[in-house]
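User: Second chain of the day. Same drill as before.
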Amino acid sequence: MRSLFAIAFAATAFLVPQFSAMAQSWPDRPIKLIVPQPPGGGFDTVARILADRMGPLLGQPVVVENRTGAGTLVGTEAAARAPADGYTLLLGALSNIALNPGLYDKLPYDPLKDFTPVGLAVTWSYTLVARKDLPQKDLKELIAFARANPEKVTYASAGKGSGQHIATAVMEKLAGVKFTHVPYRGAQAAYQDILGGRVDLFFDISSTARAQVEGETVRALAVSSKARQSFHADVPSVFETGVAPLDMESWFGLFAPAAIPAPALAKLRADLDVVLARPEVSELFARTGGRVLKLSPQETENLVRIDVERWTKLLKDAAVSAE
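Assistant: Same format as last time:
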């Protein structure tokens, strides 16, 4: 027994200096942040806001690398296969972490096994907008019309499997109605037909829908989050209207390969907390309707796990696929 204790003590004594050295030396070179979408979109914007502010705290630049292809699959898989040494991170979001498992039969990564959440940073709701001359005055009236007239109501999306498609398709399934999906190549093309009165609905991310709502070029019917959004507080949530128990918010955050060393993970989490506590960061996101998230590591892991499980089931039930 004494020899076993001696061996255990020796092993611990050997590991402690290595653990301490890692904590003191990391990072000693730039950190790469993989963004699985092109420059200029929501993924990229969040990544650059965080990277610019975390670099000085870490003492090394955080370099954004846009790795595109196959939606978000190429970049996300690249991050999952990267060395777990703390020098590669992923900008993860509801779409590539929680929605993709339900959209693809064979996903080239496991969001729960291949990644460790560093932390979630910000979340946006979706806003269901309608053409200005839609006869139905609110969502309850619209759903009643759709129930009596299957497939007569049309809705736009930025493409099959996009967040806009998923938000409407899941609401449609939960409400027990049938719409007609009209996919477009991006939100701009969808808005052209909404503004022209050629399509009825568009469930767009609130950050881009907000300008159209405030400009009164469209009518806001509801938001996808369970609670109302402060930037258009007079717009009810879908959940609140009672037509469907929808609760959808598009969150973004930092993820690392699952086996990242504990000292690196602890440092990244501490520095992300510092960045998210800054009023200017909250104000920057709030301008587009974003809400900064301040969650503990355990709360973050629980939210991610629950959303992966919940959305996989919802998408399978609604028969929504990206393939």
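Residues 54 and 274 are 9 Å apart (CA to CA).

User: Great, on to the next one.
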